[in-house]
Amino acid sequence: MFEQAAAQYATPFHLYDEAGIRQNARDLNKAFSWCKDFQEYFAVKALPNPAILRILKEEGCGVDCSSETELMLAESCGFTGREIMFSANAMPYEEFEHARKLGAYVNLDDITHIDILEKHGGIPETICCRFNPGGDFKIGTAIMGNPGDAKYGFTPAQLREGLTILKQKGARRFGLHAFLSSNNTDTGYYPALAKILFATAREMADATGLELAFINLSGGVGIPYLPDAQKTDIFAVGEGVRQAYEAVFPEGGVAIKTELGRWMTGPMGWLVTRAMHRKDTYKHYIGVDACAVNLMRPAMYGAYHHITVCGKGDLPCDHRYDVTGCLCENNDKFAIDRMLPEITEGDLLVIHDTGAHGHAMGYNYNGRLRSAEVLYATDGGYRLIRRAETPRDYFATLDMDECAAGLGLK
Ligand SMILES: *Cc1c(COP(=O)(O)O)cnc(C)c1O
């Protein structure tokens, strides 16, 4: 599949597997089919490409947006009203208004957002609030996150006060959201989060008289970046949440929503790049035609992304390489001290698990350009779903007619 795609499109590019993305959406929907009103709101920031969003729409998903352009993207793909979750943050006030105009659910991040929303779009009948329980988030004795250090959400006291104010201002139903751990492959993560949200929501409904409409479990379900790591069993996750649900809501009636990004598309994307340089100094380096602007996670988080070499899968991994890009920046490395088969110039390298927070986190440092995105469609064809940037794109925000003319860009 990678060689075929590379025969058609110049490297580097991200390749996405349509069938795999559809299968993940179907598995997730099945895992939560016990809940009558379950819906996934795909986190647009993970893979903001309209071709992908339309596929997910066909699979019954909504979208989770956190910016004006993400709202525009959702709108352009035909998402409307309750198919859109707007996760507020320290964002421009007009974005609240935009979300309300689309009829999206608004998920407030802070008690001060109540006044902002009232002035910019108005308080809706159904409102969602983001909860931050503070302290450490534990499953058993293992610390899985540190909500107390996170910038998001209402404290418990603010939540009670905020919901009371929202009721006075006309809200009748509420949803409760929290995101307490990122890239968590433990099947106990969602159930543990659900327990906290279910208990808190029930308490808040009793205290305020607002009706509880839904629980939003947000994102955070992880994927196995390491080759020997286990895939998160989404059916076990769904079953764990069901048990927690039935203990608190035996009568049902409360919807469940998720905002998965990484789990949905992460393993269904690959960055395809070609080895261009070999360098032997104190270490052995392979320079490829992609760089950190195409995939920031290794440089930014030291994240592991598995790498394979096309056509060399049967060869022993007996060479130790740093796989680098071309940025003038020493952390521009896709792998450090990675054991790989011997690589020669022209080899096609595949960097795995780039389907979420991959291309999307791209930037233009060093004047480098973002790559194309290609869809491996269910009909067996390869479709360009985003072209690579060109210098014209890079210069587009500059008011420099003369310069553009001088460069022959006009
Ligand atoms: C980033 C984000 C998500 C998706 O997170 P993943 O780790 O990709 O599952 C969901 N909801 C909100 C509000 C987010 O900011």
Radius of gyration: 23 Å
Percent range of helical residues? 25-40%
What summary fits the major beta sheet?
9 strands, mixed
For the secondary structure, the number of strands is 19
Helical segment tally?
A: 13
Average pLDDT rating: 96
State the low-pLDDT regions, or none.
none
Number of domains: 2
Structural category: alpha/beta
CATH superfamily of the largest domain: Alanine racemase
Which fold does the CATH topology of the largest domain refer to? TIM Barrel
Strand percentage: 15-25%
Task: Outline the secondary-structure elements.
Layout: H1 2-8, E1 13-17, H2 18-31, E2 39-43, H3 50-58, E3 62-65, H4 68-76, E4 84-87, H5 93-101, E5 105-108, H6 113-119, E6 126-130, E7 137-139, E8 142-145, H7 156-168, E9 173-177, H8 189-208, E10 211-216, H9 234-248, E11 255-258, H10 262-265, E12 269-280, E13 284-288, H11 297-301, E14 307-309, E15 319-324, E16 333-340, E17 348-352, E18 372-376, E19 382-386, H12 391-395, H13 401-406
Parallel strand pairs: 1-18, 2-3, 2-11, 3-4, 4-5, 5-6, 6-9, 9-10, 10-11, 13-15
Antiparallel strand pairs: 1-12, 7-8, 12-13, 12-17, 14-17, 15-16, 18-19
The protein binds pyridoxal-5'-phosphate (PLP).
Name some characteristics of this structure.
410 residues, 2 domains, 19 strands, 30% helix, 8-stranded parallel barrel, 13 helices, TIM Barrel, alpha/beta, Lyase, Ornithine Decarboxylase, Chain A, domain 1
